[in-house]
Amino acid sequence: QVSAALREGGVSPTELCQRCLSLIKSTKFLNAYITVAEETALKQAEESEKRYRSGQPLGVLDGIPVAVKDNFNTAGIETTCASNMLKGYISPYNATVVQKLLDQGAVLLGKTNLDEFAMGSGSTDGVFGPVRNPWSYSRQYKEKSVSKSHSEDEESNWVITGGSSGGSAAAVSSFTCFAALGSDTGGSTRNPAAHCGVVGLKPTYGLISRHGLIPLVNSMDVPGILTRCVDDAAVVLGLLAGHDPKDSTTIQDDFKPFELPNLPDVSKLSIGIPKEYQAPGLSSEILGLWSKAADLFKNAGAKVIEVSLPHTCYSIVCYHVLCTAEVASNMARFDGLEYGHRSDMNKSTESMYAATRREGFNDVVRGRILSGNYFLLKQNYENYFIKAQKVRRLIANDFLKVFRSGIDILLTPTTLSDPVPYTEFIKEDNRTRSAQDDILTQAVNLAGLPAINVPTALSERGLPVGLQFIGRSFQEKQLLTVAKWFEKQVKFPIIQLEEVKSHVQDVFQHRKSASFS
Amino acid sequence: QEVTVEVLAHLEHLALVDFRDAEGVERLRKAIRFADLLQVVNTEGVEPMDSVLEDRCLYLREDDVTEGNCTKELMKNAREKVEEYFVAPPGNIPLLKLEEQETFLQGS
């Protein structure tokens, strides 16, 4: 819709850019952005405006403000991964996905906040502080919370965004941009998408290039797409997917961008409900929503079948071993010599490296490096690392079996509950939290499948809850079609934020939701 | 099995990251106990999986130089440099021999 407005001249790219920039300023308390690239964004907007005036926009994304998670390299713009290790690091190049966005004329507003090096499920463990969920300040949440004094509770009651792409999710949710890039290794795009009430797409591993995405787990990382509606996600996917010679883990098959049907038909589909996803700790509210969703499909004529993914309960442990092992390897590059933080200790190379890494990494990162190294020791390699790789195959095979038996799409919850208040979240340490929260999203990364979070409803506390659809490898079109149908059925409400109202009103007078396609 | 002081020291040396305090060591112990849960899974006859794309051929491009010559750009991010060299402190000095070592283990 915004794209159409830009084309018709209803609003200009520079106006749009300025509005988003000022909205970012007035929502600074959310702490969603680490770096705001004001000057370059305005320049990009001006270039875009010239193109529109001469009737030659580059495409749907021309002039659209976007944000990128701060673990993607962006030329000339600081890339920190929310860590002291990379504070002040100015990337010399653009990640492939960032370059693709820029080539389409998108306006890069800035880099969003995350958990340090994308390790965590709350976006609370970065050096720039935690990200606040915009819904904490929504009328919907405030109405439902029993408060003694208005201002006192706002300060202590704010809820987390989920993670680790919390900044990106918050940015999209609070209308400061129209699409954002996140990354998904264990659920890091879908989890905050569910908590912030936005669409979070994890594409199939190998579909989108990871070149320029600072790696966490090479065999599971993918760039994630966060938007306000499924159609937008399909558009962005169409622009980002495809083979990249700079990333040899991208498949070579031709990718054809697709448009989703306006009136999707789900009556010929088989929807699988994996019983193991009724995990301990799943809130009864979400269980109810999941069940209602299944009924929606049944009533539309689809076959809804209970299925089993028996090794689901081992996915967290398997992930834990493989993740820490890969992290131990990936973090080895940070030694202070070529880039990033460097300690003043200079007695020897090794002591400089050790001091640099002690100063640069937080406890979570250091803990994972040490655990990973333990599992990779000669005496442990077979029993831990290789064992985990075998379990990974069992988990991936579980999914294959289910899809081969005729199931098209799996329907599961995305999170165990609605977003919790920050004060409650920090009572448990990062590893425990990740182990609890990732259980519904993480097996998907082990199997490399595509999955999407679709915002479904508001909880009793007035906070967003989403449901997850999992598809077959490289069948994003089918996955997104089902997601779009579901989105139309549930009609998830728009966030009512004071700051947003004035900025958004004039551009979107008659529209119910603000999307750009 | 018990995680011995030797193993801890070895890990610190390999990882070039220290545990800092008892909490760090406890965290490792918890991580190992957690990972031990994998032992109950029957993986008889199962091949380890390296990548979900194992059925495909890896892409190899032609051995042609397509980019480079960006020395100045790359040197910008290094703190200690001389001409086109990264400057490192003296090498070949093992970590543990140094008196300045400040690990938790040294104190115990």
TrEMBL record, chain A:
One GO term of the biological process aspect: mitochondrial translation
A Pfam entry, by short name: Amidase
Domain of life where this protein originates: Eukaryota
Entry's Gene Ontology cellular component terms: glutamyl-tRNA(Gln) amidotransferase complex; mitochondrion
Ranges of residues in domain Amidase: 20-480
Cited HAMAP family: GatA
Keyword field: ATP-binding, Ligase, Mitochondrion, Nucleotide-binding, Protein biosynthesis, Transferase
Lineage of the species this protein comes from: Eukaryota, Metazoa, Chordata, Craniata, Vertebrata
Species the sequence originates in: Oreotrochilus melanogaster
Protein name: GATA amidotransferase
From TrEMBL, chain B:
A molecular function GO annotation: transferase activity
Listed InterPro entries: Asp/Glu-ADT_sf_sub_c (IPR036113), GatC (IPR003837)
CC annotations in GO: glutamyl-tRNA(Gln) amidotransferase complex; mitochondrion
UniProt keyword annotations, A-Z: Transferase
GO BP of this protein: glutaminyl-tRNAGln biosynthesis via transamidation; mitochondrial translation; regulation of translational fidelity
Record Pfam families: GatC
SUPFAM superfamilies: Glu-tRNAGln amidotransferase C subunit
Extent of the signal sequence: none
HAMAP family: GatC
Protein name: GATC amidotransferase
Recorded name of the encoding gene: Gatc
